[in-house]
């Protein structure tokens, strides 16, 4: 049977182009029926033959890295300077938070300029010559390892990293400054390192104000078996830090028969059987509000920590690990209850016991 032109039998090996090593601009032949077209001839870029063009590309990359550094500085400045509640109108977004917009814009610009600078550097200054390499076994022979190291050194040389000092230095500056954005955000992890948590708004001479009526409390206002909540004189719900300060200064007062008070210091710090303890549980900081008249115990509703107000506010049940702090009180010339100082220990959860 005769074969037709172009049939499979007609495709003899001698009709294929000769085998080549696969260098660029040549045609290579594989073991299959399809020829490998190889790589097109390498065409040099303008920067490869014109040093002035290379210098311009270098300055462009350095400019992008410099803009990234300035944007990082802008991020930090915006975080520190802009108030969190400031709202501005920005077209086409409408009314947005000035702080969030500034942080997003500056951080995005800083990251974009680093990426754009790296891409422009690679496309205009680093070598773009393609170098094909035959596939090799997965395991690396000593010769392969040596070749990899040689290729790495060659790539480092062709990147002109050592020669283009302006790019190198500005890139280092941009990469070094971007992490500062994350470090600044650590400020929101909590209050600045001071002793703020160890003190409250109570001071000597401040009157005890009824939290419901905001009127001064007098000894006759508090009856045996009652539970009264108080706050320092001068507190106002309009104050920006009202909730924060009240969370530390909230006070509860009960009146006991003096003979029922077991702790000597508690008796000395009381006035005619009226004792004042912090309202904040020493477990996780919940407000205490449940009082048992017969046992003089108060119960935290969150995790059932129980404190004995007739025995120095000590813990008798539950996960709390610290007694309720007591506030020393007295009576001023007007006959109103007043504080004789601040709490002598931090209120709330026992963070100080953990170092």
From TrEMBL:
<protein>
    <recommendedName>
        <fullName>Cytochrome bc1 complex Rieske iron-sulfur subunit</fullName>
    </recommendedName>
</protein>
<dbReference type="InterPro" id="IPR045603">
    <property type="entry name" value="QcrA_N"/>
</dbReference>
<feature type="transmembrane region" description="Helical">
    <location>
        <begin position="166"/>
        <end position="186"/>
    </location>
</feature>
<keyword id="KW-0411">Iron-sulfur</keyword>
<feature type="transmembrane region" description="Helical">
    <location>
        <begin position="101"/>
        <end position="122"/>
    </location>
</feature>
<dbReference type="InterPro" id="IPR036922">
    <property type="entry name" value="Rieske_2Fe-2S_sf"/>
</dbReference>
<keyword id="KW-0813">Transport</keyword>
<keyword id="KW-0001">2Fe-2S</keyword>
<dbReference type="Pfam" id="PF19297">
    <property type="entry name" value="QcrA_N"/>
</dbReference>
<keyword id="KW-0560">Oxidoreductase</keyword>
<dbReference type="Pfam" id="PF00355">
    <property type="entry name" value="Rieske"/>
</dbReference>
<keyword id="KW-0408">Iron</keyword>
<keyword id="KW-1015">Disulfide bond</keyword>
<feature type="transmembrane region" description="Helical">
    <location>
        <begin position="61"/>
        <end position="81"/>
    </location>
</feature>
<keyword id="KW-1003">Cell membrane</keyword>
<keyword id="KW-0812">Transmembrane</keyword>
<keyword id="KW-0472">Membrane</keyword>
<keyword id="KW-0679">Respiratory chain</keyword>
<feature type="compositionally biased region" description="Basic and acidic residues">
    <location>
        <begin position="7"/>
        <end position="22"/>
    </location>
</feature>
<dbReference type="InterPro" id="IPR017941">
    <property type="entry name" value="Rieske_2Fe-2S"/>
</dbReference>
<dbReference type="InterPro" id="IPR014349">
    <property type="entry name" value="Rieske_Fe-S_prot"/>
</dbReference>
<feature type="domain" description="Rieske">
    <location>
        <begin position="267"/>
        <end position="338"/>
    </location>
</feature>
<keyword id="KW-1133">Transmembrane helix</keyword>
<keyword id="KW-0249">Electron transport</keyword>
<comment type="similarity">
    <text>Belongs to the Rieske iron-sulfur protein family.</text>
</comment>
<dbReference type="InterPro" id="IPR005805">
    <property type="entry name" value="Rieske_Fe-S_prot_C"/>
</dbReference>
<comment type="function">
    <text>Iron-sulfur subunit of the cytochrome bc1 complex, an essential component of the respiratory electron transport chain required for ATP synthesis. The bc1 complex catalyzes the oxidation of menaquinol and the reduction of cytochrome c in the respiratory chain. The bc1 complex operates through a Q-cycle mechanism that couples electron transfer to generation of the proton gradient that drives ATP synthesis.</text>
</comment>
<keyword id="KW-0479">Metal-binding</keyword>
<feature type="region of interest" description="Disordered">
    <location>
        <begin position="1"/>
        <end position="45"/>
    </location>
</feature>
């Amino acid at each position: 049977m005769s074969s037709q032109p172009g049939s499979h039998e007609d495709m003899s090996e001698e009709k294929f182009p000769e085998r080549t090593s696969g260098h660029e601009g040549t045609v290579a032949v594989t073991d299959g029926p399809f020829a490998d077209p190889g790589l097109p001839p390498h065409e040099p870029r303008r920067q490869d033959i014109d040093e002035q063009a290379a210098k311009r590309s270098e300055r462009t990359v350095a400019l992008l890295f410099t803009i990234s550094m300035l944007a990082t500085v802008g991020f930090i400045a915006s975080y520190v300077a802009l108030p969190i509640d400031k709202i501005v109108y920005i077209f086409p977004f409408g009314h947005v938070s000035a702080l969030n917009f500034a942080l997003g814009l500056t951080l995005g610009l800083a990251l974009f300029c680093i990426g754009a600078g790296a891409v422009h550097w690679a496309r205009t200054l680093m070598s773009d010559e393609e170098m094909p390499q035959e596939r090799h076994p997965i395991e690396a022979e000593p010769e392969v390892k040596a070749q990899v190291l040689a290729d790495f050194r060659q790539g480092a040389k062709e990147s002109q990293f050592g020669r283009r000092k302006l790019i190198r230095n500005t890139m280092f500056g941009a990469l070094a400054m971007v992490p500062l954005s994350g470090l600044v955000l650590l400020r929101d992890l909590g209050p600045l390192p001071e002793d703020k948590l160890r003190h409250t708004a109570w001071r000597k001479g401040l009157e005890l104000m009824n939290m419901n009526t905001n009127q001064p409390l007098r000894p006759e206002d508090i009856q045996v078996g009652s539970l009264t909540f108080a706050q320092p004189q001068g507190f106002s719900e309009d104050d920006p830090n009202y909730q924060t300060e009240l969370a530390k200064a909230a006070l509860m007062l009960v009146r006991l028969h003096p003979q029922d008070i077991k702790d000597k210091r508690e008796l000395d710090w009381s006035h005619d059987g009226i004792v004042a303890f912090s309202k904040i549980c020493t477990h996780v900081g919940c407000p205490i509000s449940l009082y048992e008249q017969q046992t003089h115990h108060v119960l935290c509703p969150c995790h059932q920590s129980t404190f004995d107000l007739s025995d120095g506010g000590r813990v008798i049940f539950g996960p709390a690990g610290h007694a309720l702090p007591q506030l020393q009180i007295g009576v001023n010339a007007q006959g109103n209850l007043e504080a004789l100082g601040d709490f002598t220990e931090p209120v709330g959860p026992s963070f100080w016991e953990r170092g």
